[in-house]
Amino acid sequence: MNQERVDADVQGELFKRRRSEIPDAERVLILQEKLYQKAKQERGYKFYVLYDKMFIPYMIREAWKTVRANGGASGVDSVTIAKIEEYGVESYLKELGEDLRKQLYEPQAVKRVMIPKANGGERPLGIPTVRDRIAQTVCKMILEPIFEADFEEGSYGFRPNRSSKDAIAAIKENLKEGNTEVYDADLSKYFDTIPHDKLQIAMKERITDPRILKLINKWLKVPVFEDGQYKSGKGNRTGTPQGGVISPLLANVYFHLIDRIVNNTKSLFGKYGVRIVRYADDFVLMGKTLPIAIIEKLKSLLQRMGLTINETKTRQIDARKEGFNFLGFTIRYDLDVKGRKTKYWNIMPAKKSEQKIRDKVEEYLKTHGHFNARNVAIGLNTILRGWLNYFDIKGVSYPAMSKRRLRFYLFNSLNRYYARKSQRKCRLYGHNAFEVLSTKFGLIDPMKYVYRPARL
To answer: How does DSSP assign 98-135, residue by residue?
Structure first.
């Protein structure tokens, strides 16, 4: 079965109905399913004709819908989503499609801004133009199903139908199976240090269309606009584009090399039954034993890939004796809360995670002193709901104590908040503000909140 047959099968599915009857999303899904099946069935197959799908109108329209739904600020061209809608979405997408078809498309510089970190520092955030986000989304829609056919089970970050919750559940399952030796690794600036030449080699295991590879290389070497100045990207040899839609996929493609070796039953890792659980660049090795040879082998592989372990933040522990943090959770082997002599794997929000939600609540109350009670409840619910949903994993995590502490914090914070408004004769001054907001205005009570996944 060759590339032409794949395309023919796709077209066959589409022409069973009138084109006007087939939604764009369904047409994209049909194409992705065919690409995935081809990659899954033929592990060594290299896709050499893909660029022609970059300018298919329904692909571009569906990419636009995704970018529009995600929102975000404008890039260096100051063109916002609203401006595109004012200009005319159909015309704008048609022009982009023509540039891609004629290979005249050139990505613009990435606008870099600094955003505050929890520790008081700052981290850079890249903002590509909306036009570039659309083009990268199309490319991602084409490449993702191909590489998804190869990715390992223990990889969870930035993948369809996978989440941090799945990663935490996998860690707990490994611990219950006796894989309690844990190497909690931290990579130094992973996204900024991926070597372009080696990434291209990893890409070429599946993708040999030179036009797609050239396009990705353009995104890798895009200039940066910061503090009113342009910094050329032509000399870039490492790093994926900050804020780029395509960056997480490229990062997964590169680290897949490690996933694959660790999970190979014939490798040194396989000999000792070592497992890897990874979410983007955060990962842990787990096993019944992790001899020094395993750690040295990992470091050697990473070094050959141009990556570095951050030794100050990396540690090897026996999880039965010492807890560790992963993706905002603390994982510990604790005594039974009811006083029994048995122990259980306790997974709960980390202290830093609890502090982050308190900081967000405090910041919100500081900057919304003029809001009425109903709007205060609505605003706080947006903050609380996301945090509670993240840390509530049915049958896996135990966030009850953290919820209790959060409720206590809300109780005190809201009383102080309305005490400060007392000079304006606030009706909630001197009352139990938390109870009033939760009973009358729908404020979430963390102790009563139950996570309900959204229905598709």
So the answer is: HHHHTT---PPPEEEEEEE-TTS-EEEEEE--HHHHHH
- Compute how many other C-beta atoms are within 10 angstroms of the C-beta atom of residue 395: 6
Which amino acid, 22?
A: I
Joined together, the tokens standing for residue 35 give 């690409």
Terminal-residue alpha carbon distance, the chain:
34
Query: What does the pLDDT read at residue 456?
Result: 44
pLDDT tens digits, 79-121: 999 999 999 999 999 999 999 999 999 999 999 887 776 666 6
Can you tell me whether residue 174 is helix, strand or coil? helix
Tens digit of each residue's pLDDT (9 = 90 or more) over 318-365: 999 999 999 999 999 998 877 677 899 999 999 999 999 999 999 999
Helix 89-101 to helix 130-148 angle, to the nearest 10 degrees?
60
| DSSP string across 211-229 | HHHHHHHHHHT--EEETTE
What CA–CA distance (Å, rounded) separates 125 from 147? 26
Count how many residues are written for the chain.
456
Residue 78 sits at φ, ψ, to 5 deg, of 65, 15
The SS3 of residue 70 is: helix
This prediction's pTM: 0.90
Cβ contact 253:147 at 8 Å: yes
- C-alpha–C-alpha distance, residues 322 and 37, integer Å: 44
